[in-house]
Design brief:
The complex is a heterodimer of chains A (313) and B (519). With 313 residues, chain A is mostly helical. Chain A has 2 domains: 2-73, no CATH class; 92-306, MetI-like (MetI-like fold, Orthogonal Bundle). Chain A is 77% helix and 0% strand. Chain A is built from 12 helices and no strands. The longest helix of chain A has 38 residues, at 222-259. Chain A starts with a helix and ends in a 7-residue tail after the last helix. Chain B is α+β, with helices and mostly antiparallel strands and 519 residues long. Chain B has 15 helices and 23 strands. Chain B has helices spanning 2-19, 49-58, 106-117, 126-132, 155-160, 171-177, 228-236, 251-256, 285-294, 297-305, 334-343, 375-389, 400-408, 448-459, 463-479; strands spanning 29-34, 63-65, 71-73, 76-81, 87-92, 133-140, 143-148, 191-197, 201-206, 219-224, 242-243, 260-266, 269-275, 309-311, 347-348, 354-356, 359-360, 362-367, 392-397, 414-420, 483-496, 499-500, 516-517. In chain B, the strands form 5 sheets. In chain B, strands 1, 8, 9, 10, 11, 12, 13, 14, 18, 19, 20 and 21 form a 12-stranded mixed sheet that branches. The chains are: A mainly alpha (313), B alpha+beta (519).
Chain lengths: 313, 519
């Protein structure tokens, strides 16, 4: 088990190296210049040169690249160009918010997606199944910037039930819980749709198996057969999808956090990219990549517990 | 069955609790919705942005600006230039203390400007300021003398007034916090810094000892809300009381909502389409003028700008104290445009496009998309009108960061551009666009008379003479048809109608000392 885990972690390392290199190159090769935005409009060309030197942007690309690695290996992600704060501090202050949002969104999407998928499979080709399949298709197709705005209009403006934006406190407080609902729902609807489709097709395969027929023949209650026997075996592909959805959620968070003024990494990423804040963009993407690698590692490891046939040897 | 009923009732109660609107009690707490989070409160190191805007609530400057851009005493009660405009003396306000209890005096002013001029600080103004200032003297506790390298009346607008980096920060706090002063600002302004939760909010509280009298709001809360529609919904639902920047598309909606109030005021800004005279055929005055004559600027501004802008006049914002009201722009006159083009040897080709020596009259307009009011739409309208006239125009619409770097490297034929020129002294304003080595000087327009008029204007102490020189400079720029100018943007803010006592500032500064929430 330990060896299996270590091997999985080792596979993650080249992924991270590739991500750091790619992001470094993409940010530097994208046209646009943070120094010009940092300086007042009437600054002179000499000011531009001086500021570039001050920020270390006057060095050649390879020099900057290797210096960046040297720093990362010492645990230093550099300073944001725009705010001049250490990138690490920026990340640490935002991570809890994005983690909270992603967690609530994942839970919501599983709570919505799994039961719908199971029920659709059991009631295959009924009206419910048809409606849910169309709903899933529509759900996947909603762009989150539109969905988010609609949810704000409905729940904040017209009904006045929930706050329109911001984070009003930690998740376990009532105000905090209320404020996370809309952004989390925005993220969850798309992935709930994917999850319900995956659950449905995976369940359909399982309920045709002989042992399900046997379980039914034994006289077990229908609900017990489906929710315990079928779902447990049909859940592995869904779990894999949940792991993959985590990456999509982080991507979606960039938009949802901007619409809902949620103080997480996604909102910070938008600002960093607009400003060409190289160290900050790199720090955020590095963190995103590392967390996706980690979550997928956890998903891989969890197979062992769900399905005894999966071994770590 | 009964168990299920109870579970159902409990669930229902929980849902109701979650969705019940929350009412917050507020003791004149004003909540602001800003388009982004402050980048830093170390205002010596930033230029523009929300950090600067909120910084104005925490810090004071030697000079303040009134609602119409007039210079008013700030931490300096009075100031004067020497006869030859090389020495600037400030007489400071007595009895002022910083929020940390330390005393404000001449030494504090010197400390701040020394910090601005120290390369280790990394201020965007460091190089310019060090070149402009020879030394700073403090003959007594309440007098500061700036000895300048050369006569420069515009020095106040450039380095000392509120538009600049010259906020006075507590020296004790800078020593205590070092770089962390960026998140622990200590000034002498109307509001004291309390806390900053990154991405969520900044909290300020009333400075009871403010030299201008204790402000009315007990607290100011600043919330970053990047999405414009969300900001408006928050304003409507009372989540915030004030929006600092309003999108033009939202203005009509706000005007028609009795619960909201819209504030607008013309600003010292200028926007238009500039020519790159380094590129042909814009080296030819006739071509530039013909293009200006072929665009119906008045109609475009009226239709597309709405009440977000006012039509400009000439190369300087109308509100600038040195604005020349006698400037006559080329105007809209297609017949005259045709005559000028044919004078320069251009003739209409078979495809309806002007050509000369086999070369078509065609070029590209570079524009951002929404960063400036209606930039893309105005570029499109100009493109359409020029096309009908016989000039082929392509558009290159790019996002802001790319736009800035393309524009400042001079990589354009024509560019839709603009900005704020906050200090309204005749020797300030957009004239620097055509002078010296500033990074905006990319239009290939060189004129020695202009250079002379401007340099003299900066060194002349007499206001009327400065104004006369500024008028002359504007005639030169206008006659050369350096650009087709469209509008001066309005400064637009919105607030809930129960927010009273607010005075909208024409320079764009936030003043909240006298603001309160009516019942």
């Amino acid at each position: 088990m330990t060896v299996y885990a270590i091997r999985k972690v080792l596979i993650g390392i080249p992924v991270l190296i590739a991500v750091v290199t790619l992001v470094f190159l993409i940010t530097r090769l994208t046209p646009g210049d943070p120094v010009r935005q940092l300086l007042p409009p009437d600054a002179s060309e000499a000011d531009v040169i001086q500021m570039r030197k001050y920020l270390g942007l006057d060095q050649s690309l390879p020099q900057q690249y290797f210096r960046y690695w040297e720093r990362i290996l010492h645990g230093d992600f550099g300073n944001s160009i725009r705010t001049r704060r250490p990138v690490w501090d920026e990340l640490v202050s935002r991570i809890p918010y994005t983690a909270e949002l992603a967690l609530v969104a994942i839970i919501l999407s599983a709570l919505i997606g799994v039961p719908i998928g199971v029920y659709s499979a059991i009631r295959q080709n009924t009206v419910f199944d048809g409606v849910m399949r169309v709903a899933a298709f529509v759900g996947v197709s909603f762009p989150s910037f539109w969905l988010g705005t609609m949810l704000i209009l409905l729940f904040a403006l017209w009904l006045g039930w929930l706050p329109a934006s911001g984070c009003d406190g930690p998740l376990w407080t009532l105000a905090g819980f209320r404020s996370v609902l809309l952004p989390a729902l925005t993220l969850a609807i798309g992935s709930a749709a994917s999850i319900s489709r995956m659950t449905r097709s995976s369940m359909l395969e399982v309920i045709r198996q002989d042992y399900i027929t046997v379980a039914k023949a034994k006289g077990l209650r229908e609900s017990r057969v489906h929710w315990k026997h079928s779902l447990k075996n049909g859940f592995i592909p869904v779990l894999t999808l949940l792991g993959m959805q985590f990456g999509f959620l982080l991507g979606g968070a960039v938009i949802a956090e901007t619409i809902f003024a949620w103080p997480g990494l996604g909102q910070l990423a938008v600002k960093a990219i607009m400003f060409r804040d190289y160290p900050l963009i790199q720090g955020i993407v590095f963190f995103f990549a590392a967390s996706v690698v980690l979550v997928n590692l956890l998903v891989d490891l969890s197979y062992v517990f769900i399905d005894p046939r999966v071994t770590t040897s | 069955m009964q168990r299920r009923l109870w579970i159902g009732i409990t669930m229902l109660m929980l849902v109701l609790a979650v969705f019940a609107p929350m009412v917050s009690s507020a003791d004149n707490v004003i909540i602001l919705g800003m388009e982004e989070e402050p980048e830093s409160f170390d205002v010596h190191k930033i230029s523009g942005g929300v950090g600067m805007t909120i910084g104005h609530l925490i810090y004071d400057y030697l000079i303040r600006y009134g609602p119409d851009g007039e210079r008013l005493p700030g931490l300096a009660e009075s100031w004067e230039f020497s006869e030859d405009a090389t020495t600037l003396t400030f007489h400071l306000r007595a009895g002022v203390t910083f929020h940390d209890g330390s005393k404000f005096d001449a030494a504090a002013v010197k400390y701040n400007f020394d910090r601005l001029m120290d390369p280790a600080t990394g201020s965007p103004r460091q190089r310019e300021l060090s070149n402009a200032v020879v030394s700073i003297e403090t003959p007594d506790n309440l007098t500061v003398i700036f000895n300048l390298a050369k006569p420069d009346v515009a020095f106040i607008g450039y380095y000392v007034g509120e538009v600049t980096n010259g906020a006075i920060i507590s020296p004790t706090a800078i020593e205590k916090y070092g770089d962390k002063i960026a998140s622990h600002p200590v000034g002498t302004g109307p509001f004291k810094f309390v806390s900053w939760e990154l991405g969520r909010r900044v909290v300020l509280e009333r400075n009871e000892d403010f030299w201008g009298g204790a402000p009315l709001p007990s607290q100011i809360i600043v919330r970053p809300i990047p999405d414009a529609s969300t900001r408006l919904v928050e304003l409507e639902t009372g989540g915030i009381h004030y929006i600092y920047k309003v999108e033009p598309a939202q203005m009509d909606f706000i005007v028609n909502d009795p619960d909201l109030t819209l504030y607008t005021k013309p600003s010292t800004s200028l926007y238009g389409l500039w020519f790159n005279q380094n590129r042909e055929p814009f080296g030819d005055l006739n071509v530039r003028k013909a293009i200006a004559l072929a665009i119906d600027v008045d109609t475009i501004v009226e239709v597309l700008g709405g009440n977000a802008v006012v039509r400009s006049q000439g190369p300087v914002p109308v509100l600038n104290l040195g604005h020349n009201p006698n400037i006559v722009e080329p105007g809209y006159n297609q017949a005259e445009a045709k005559r000028l083009l044919s004078n320069s040897g251009w003739a209409l080709g078979s495809d309806g496009v002007y050509e000369k020596d086999g070369q078509k009259l065609e070029f590209t307009i570079l524009s951002g998309d929404g960063h400036n009011i209606q930039d893309k739409q105005i570029s499109e309208a100009a493109q359409d009108q020029l096309k009908q006239f016989g000039i082929k125009v392509s558009l290159r619409i790019v996002e802001h960061a790319l736009f800035m770097s393309e524009q400042m490297s001079g990589n354009f034929d024509m560019v839709f551009l603009g900005g704020w020129f906050t200090d309204n002294d005749p020797a300030r304003g957009p004239m620097y666009l055509y002078l010296g080595d500033t990074q905006y000087n990319v239009f290939g327009f060189v004129n020695e008379d202009l250079q002379a008029a401007f340099t003299t204007a900066r060194s002349v102490g007499d206001f009327e003479l400065r104004k006369a020189l500024a008028w002359e400079a504007q005639e030169i720029i206008n006659d050369a048809v350096v650009a087709v100018w469209f509008y001066n943007a309005n400064i637009v803010a919105a607030a809930t109608s129960n927010l009273k006592g607010y005075e909208h500032n024409g320079i764009g500064f936030l003043r909240l000392e006298n603001v309160y929430l009516a019942d």
